[in-house]
Amino acid sequence: MEKHYTDSKVKGVSTGTTILAAIFDGGVVIGSDSRASIGGEYVSSKTINKVIQVHDRIFCCMAGSLADAQAVIKSAKSHLSFHSVQMESPPLVIAAASVLKELCYKNKDELQAGFLTAGWDSKKGPQVYVVSLGGMLISQQVTIGGSGSTYIYGYVDAKYKPNMTREECLQFATNALALAMGRDNVSGGVAHLVVITEKGVEHVVVPGDKLPRFNDE
Amino acid sequence: MALSTVLETPGAGFNFDNATRNAALEGLFKGGQTPKPLKTGTTIAGVVFKDGVVLGADTRATSSEVVADKMCEKIHFISPNIYCCGAGTAADTEKTTELLSSNLSIFSLNSGRNPRVVMAVNILQDMLYRYHGQIGANLILGGVDCTGNHLYTVGPYGDVNKVPYLAMGSGDLAALGILEDGFKHNLELEEAKELVRSSVHAGIMSDLGSGNNIDICVITKQGVDYIRPYQESEYKDDRKMKYKYRPGTTKVLTEKVVPLKLEIIQETVQKMDTA
User: Fold this and answer.
1) For chain A, is the Cβ count within 10 Å smaller at the N or the C terminus?
2) Domain-wise residue ranges, chain B
3) Which GO biological process annotations does it have (chain A) (predicted)?
């Protein structure tokens, strides 16, 4: 394994990654690619799961060091479930995002992990939050993250419209992920998407060969 | 580390004490270079098949360019239904798996159940994450429990991935090539064994740090079949001379017997409380 590891800012396995979350009319779509890499050269996993369920209607996408992200999410899951038992009601999406933010901010010197949190709650409906590397927490309508996101800022800015339908939003997310995976070497594999609405949660997995193809491919 | 406590979870939140200690230690060494622990080259592989999991490993342990152990055991027992292959620093993989195994056996005795593979994985992840990659253990955990057949990888930084097939160690790239080509879902037992054998063999052929024999461990609902060795190295040497000397080779010149006179000084009887 040591020969795979070159000078990389992230020690060990990095998620590489392209992650994305977007609100549509009645719900939210959150998705990511599925590649985990070491040192920017070796793909250690083609099918890593970066979209993790932290509660019934709340999902998180991870970016940065895989070990750090998995550890933070594990801790957040247990915090949230305890919080939910104490409050006797499902947690708000902002509660989930805040738990992640506390962990990232308090341990910012040692951790290298960022998250997107998306979900539905009865108070504010569908929401998307970003917790960045240093622990900043903001709410947005649509957001992208990870190394692959730099290639799709233009696409997202141009193509995202508020109050899209579920199908339009899914297509938008799939296209965005496909474009990023096409240009970023540390993003790839399959596109994992999760659609969260008041009624429930639906997983959509688009395998590599079924991803939309664009002009130069 | 308390030995009698079962699954002692450290205090809430993250504990980075070791990171500060390491930073302080680094300053003590000349040129800031901490001594590197010796790594053993290895090829380990695992495959999930129709009825269970097959794990395979080579048996060479190296110390720089010398083969220190030709019949080293790299597939460690965790619990009757879970085994673990270890690559990386030999001492780390050995002790980590022993710790995991003893924690899980206390758990089994207390709860009356066989542990689940995902539980073993979580314990390992928590422990390795706490040490931030300082424990050089790259592990492949495979087992069968009430929820099915599982194969997980745990890295030294504490990252976990659940996979249907896997290879690790210095010979992993060669082994992975064979696995990528030959793997299919729901393999039969003999096909799975052959796939793992040939992938470890590829690792042995292409990597200097791996070699000698191949061990295979098959875990199914019915039980465990640990075949050691599954395939012996074709380059096994044939010793022409015996290094054992028969009794009488060295002549006995004199013999003196001195009996040890022991007398009982004190005797105490303590009744056992069998209430």
Assistant:
1) C
2) 43-231
3) proteolysis involved in protein catabolic process
A110 in reach of chain B (CB within 8 A): yes
Interchain proximity A67–B168, CB inside 8 Å: no
Helix H or strand E encompassing A196: strand A191-197
**Burial class of residue B112, CB neighbours in 10 A (0-12, 13-18, 19+):** exposed
Q: A70 at the B interface (CB within 8 A)?
A: yes
CB B164 within 8 A of CB B48: yes
Cβ contacts of B159 on chain A, cutoff 8 Å: 12-13, 36, 65-67, 70
Give residue-wise pLDDT tens across range A65-98: 999 999 999 999 999 999 999 999 999 999 999 9
Q: ipTM > 0.85? A: no
Catalytic residues of A: 17
DSSP class of residue A210 equals G
Percent of chain A with pLDDT over 70: 94
B42 is an active site residue: yes
Chain B residues within an 8 Å CB radius of A12: 133, 155-157, 159
Q: For A216, phi and psi rounded to 5 degrees?
A: -85, 0
What is the rounded CA–CA span in Å between residue B165 and residue B46? 6
Q: CB within 8 A of A12, min separation 6: which ones?
A: A5, A38, A65, A66, A67, B133, B155, B156, B157, B159
Catalogue all structural domains in chain A, each as residue range(s) with its CATH number. Answer: 13-210 (3.60.20.10)
B177 interfaces chain A, CB cutoff of 8 Å: no
Q: Do A67 and B170 touch (CB under 8 A)?
A: no
For the domain with range B43-231, which CATH number is right: 3.40.50.1000, 3.40.640.10, 3.60.20.10, 3.40.50.1100? 3.60.20.10
